[in-house]
Amino acid sequence: MPDIIAKINGIQELWKAGGCTEQQLSDAQQALKMVFPPEYVAYLREFGCIDFFATEWTGLNVEGNCNVVTMTLQERSINDDFPPKMLALENAGIDGIVITVDESGAVYKVQYDNCEKIYDSISEYLDRCIARKK
């Protein structure tokens, strides 16, 4: 897990909400009826939520659609095909694409009834997000 923390800390012009509490973490997992993967837990504990280079990841300590519970429950309510054991990490803002994460930490692109695995870990996806600026 330190790898993802170090990578995020190395991002210039990073906005972060501030780490979440263990209670917030527990409440979020209970609300979504899933266990968050270790990388996402480390991210939430350290940063809460982040925004950089037009990349906006969901998290805790924020209101509205940047809150992982709010966004995930919203996506589940509007898309009957949204995978039940995934959290919404990022709204791509393009044609209904939502970047999601399963309990193992694998990253998927969900678009309506299509769910495609795109990365094995959140850290790998982070590398892609950082590369967007280059």
Question: What features would you describe in this structure?
Answer:
By secondary structure, the protein is of the alpha+beta class. It has a single domain (2-131), classed as SMI1/KNR4-like, CATH 3.40.1580. Helix content is 37%, strand content 23%. The chain is built from 5 helices and 7 strands. A 4-stranded antiparallel beta sheet has the order 4-5-6-7. The protein has a 3-stranded antiparallel beta sheet with strand order 1-2-3, with no helix packed on it. α1 runs parallel beside α5 (122-131) and α2 packs parallel to α4 (68-78). It is globular and about 35 Å long. 31% of the residues are buried. The mean pLDDT is 95.
Any idea how many domains? 1
Strand content: 15-25%
Distance between the termini: 25 Å
At the first level of CATH, the class is: Alpha Beta
Whole-number mean pLDDT: 95
The major beta sheet can be summarized as: 4 strands, antiparallel
CATH superfamily: SMI1/KNR4-like
Structural class based on helices, strands and sheet pairing = alpha+beta
